[in-house]
Design goal:
The protein folds into two domains: about 5-40; about 50-160, no CATH class. With about 160 residues, the chain is α+β, with helices and mostly antiparallel strands. Helix content is about 15%, strand content about 30%. It has one helix and ten strands.
Length: about 160
């Protein structure tokens, strides 16, 4: 008897077993992908993410106490603003905020946790401070007419 007798044994899986071990998981994955594609058909969202001006402010940091109130709206340049009693108010949102614009031109505003803050037509309020737009140079959608921006430094809530 040779010292290599273990090498002479038949393998635990034959060629057919090896092929099945590879093919079956691939077929299962393909079927699962097909089911997911079929189920999600027709639920496509054509919303476009739009950048909104943001600051580095995050909850827990020092904040201003000026009241910021207005109705969420979007202009022709895809800039989100608040329509207030005295005209347009250009907010600089807390870190992580973003907007999504749907195919009908309606905007939805999300916070850094991906929670809906409001949609166009919603009246919202927050607190913060007012400053010149130069303090946020490089951010999109800031006024260039020398006006002020409203730096939102609190939770944004919907009001009636």
């Amino acid at each position: 008897m040779s010292g290599y007798s273990r090498w002479d044994q038949k393998p635990a899986l034959g060629r057919r077993g090896m092929v099945l071990a590879v093919v079956i998981p691939v077929l299962i994955a393909a079927a699962a992908f097909g089911v997911v594609s079929l189920v999600s058909r027709g639920s496509e969202s054509t919303a476009t993410t739009i950048r909104v001006p943001t600051s580095e402010w995050i909850p827990g940091q020092d904040a201003g106490d000026a009241l910021i109130v207005g109705v969420i709206a979007v202009d022709d340049h895809r800039c989100v603003y608040l329509q207030g009693s005295e005209g347009r108010l250009w907010p600089v949102w807390p870190a992580g905020f973003r907007g999504k614009l749907d195919e009908a031109g309606h905007v939805t505003l999300y916070d850094g946790g991906d929670n809906v803050v409001g949609r166009d037509g919603d009246r919202v309020q927050a607190s913060g401070s007012y400053s010149p737009p130069a303090a946020y140079a490089g951010e999109p959608c800031l006024p260039d007419d020398g006006g002020e921006v409203a730096a939102v430094q609190s939770e944004v809530t919907r009001v009636d």
